[in-house]
Amino acid sequence: MKLYKLLSFSFLLSTLTSCTFTENITINDNGTGKFSVDMDGSSLMAMAGDQMTQQMGAEAKKEIDSSFTFKQLFEAKKDSIAKLSPEVQKELKKLENFVVNTKMSSEKKEFLMTLSSDFKNVNEMQDILQTLSVLQQLEKGGNASSPFGSNFGNNNSKLSYTYDGKKFSRKAVIDTKKLAEKAKDSAPDMSKMIFASSNYILKYHFPKKIKKVSNPNALFSEDRKTITIQYPFTDYMDNPDKLNFDVEFEK
């Protein structure tokens, strides 16, 4: 299947239905780990049947289990990328090692998409979700360029993670300049309507037992090494700093 056809359909489904987005981080003893964002649109897959057929034709009847890297995507679009500014090209390079995996079955009513990458230090993941919004510059209109749609990641904040073995922090700082620009925009904000019934889940696994978490809604795994926090997707878009929290570990 062509990469852009797959990305185009994933955006279509995410805008037609409610989805669950899960931001996963796994940190190992030596500080390395894995970052991923999962999009699950399975619950309302049946609602997109007609649109799926229109977008994908005979491909809609096939079960899909497909993977590709952004490096492959960028190679196919290298001429377009060469015309972008050095700043945008630098941002895109951050995504090269990310893998996009898609599992889809119209018969099983399943649609799962995962965007993932390994890291040497969680600090490498600064602003990585915001970088996804740069993908739309690869094409005019660009919605199909990003696996989760052009709105995903573009929530007017700068996100950072820190981990030193004693504490972990997730911190989104509101970009007041971007927020002011958004306020001047008279165009309707479709993201609120599109994602009104979607959820955004944080699920982080650490190599040490957790002593305490600043968010009172955090759920612990039995071994107290994993926490899960669920938010409405509108919080992720409109109040990204509400997802901030700190973790302290047992000695």
Short overview:
With 251 residues, the protein is α+β, with helices and mostly antiparallel strands. It is built from 9 helices and 12 strands.
Question: What are its keywords?
Answer:
alpha+beta; Lipoprotein; 31% strand; 251 residues
What do these coordinates show?
With 251 residues, this protein is an alpha+beta fold. It has helices spanning 3-16, 49-56, 70-76, 78-82, 86-93, 128-131, 176-184, 190-194, 233-238, and strands at 20-27, 33-40, 64-69, 99-105, 110-119, 157-163, 167-174, 199-205, 210-213, 219-220, 226-232, 245-249. It has an 8-stranded mixed β-sheet with strand order 3-4-5-2-1-8-11-10. A 4-stranded antiparallel β-sheet has the order 6-7-12-9. A hairpin with a 5-residue loop joins strand 10 (219-220) and strand 11.
Class computed from helices, strands and strand pairing = alpha+beta
Helices, by number, come to 9
**Total beta strands:** 12
Give the helix level as a range of percent: 25-40%
The largest pleated sheet is described as: 8 strands, mixed
Instruction: Round the mean pLDDT to the nearest integer and report it.
Output: 80
Count of the separate structural domains = 1
Please report the distance between the alpha carbons of the first and last residues: 50 Å
Trace the largest sheet across and list its strands. 3-4-5-2-1-8-11-10
Furnish the topology, listing elements before pairings:
Blueprint: H1 3-16, E1 20-27, E2 33-40, H2 49-56, E3 64-69, H3 70-76, H4 78-82, H5 86-93, E4 99-105, E5 110-119, H6 128-131, E6 157-163, E7 167-174, H7 176-184, H8 190-194, E8 199-205, E9 210-213, E10 219-220, E11 226-232, H9 233-238, E12 245-249
Parallel strand pairs: 1-8
Antiparallel strand pairs: 1-2, 2-5, 3-4, 4-5, 6-7, 7-12, 8-11, 9-12, 10-11
Helix pairs in contact: 1-2
